[in-house]
Amino acid sequence: MDEVDRAIVAVLEQEGRISNSELAARVGLSPSPCLRRVRQLEEAGVIRGYRAVVDPAAVGRGLRVFAGVRLARHVRAEVAAFESAVLQLAEVRACHHITGNFDYLLHVEVADLAAYEDFHASRLAALPGVATVNSFVIMKTLDNP
Q1: For the chain, which end, N or C, has fewer CB atoms within 10 Å of the first or last residue's CB respectively?
Q2: Phi, psi at residue 16, to the nearest 5°?
Q3: Phi then psi for 91, rounded to 5 degrees?
């Protein structure tokens, strides 16, 4: 990747729906070479996709929680069973395998605290291999502009 590719990626990270002609103007290229570079970045896997950023509260997911999950054992089959099962939970927006006090950090979105209590008790804690779950309710998110 050269500086032009980095500029293209930076613009697309902020404005994924920008037109190719506007993108080309911003990075100092004509439209054809710009489109060629974007396609090359997509084919190389640098740009993995485009998506809408949705307000969670507007779609019934107003409570956001980080859940630190510790597994009882780290046997390969049990880890695989947990990972397969956690990916089936629609409330889990992201699952990160981490180091430190927890094995996984989940980003969970549900309607409200009652919905999280039900999710935690009936689904999350019941996943294969789960020893403990520590929940951290997100009160506010500070975003960089």
Answers
A1: C
A2: -65, -20
A3: -70, -20
